[in-house]
Input
Amino acid sequence: MNARLLPLLALGLLPLLPACLVQSESRTTFSGETVAPEAAHQIVEGCTQEFVRGLIGPPTAETELPDGGSLWKWTSSRSTAKGERVFLLFSSTDVTEVEADFFVEFSDGLVTRSWRQGA
Output
């Protein structure tokens, strides 16, 4: 190759260099049982525990209440990690976690109320 063409070739490849040096990525993971809004709207006062369990699956936690009733809770979370790297210079990662809970309260085996808390 002609020695005079080498600087021109290097100059021509210069715009491609940043793509090799900078990297960005995002990753989202989910855990727990997310209760869809459509399912949540079907859970109304008077529904049975069997209906609720069949509709949205077993709860994350069950708590017995002092009045003899029970409280069921479904917890879900979404974690998003975004990272950027510049080759040999620096690296940064930002993690965002969002948790949501869905509750159903029962008395004598029947729904008395339900609500969502969090995102």
In short: The chain has one domain: 21-118.
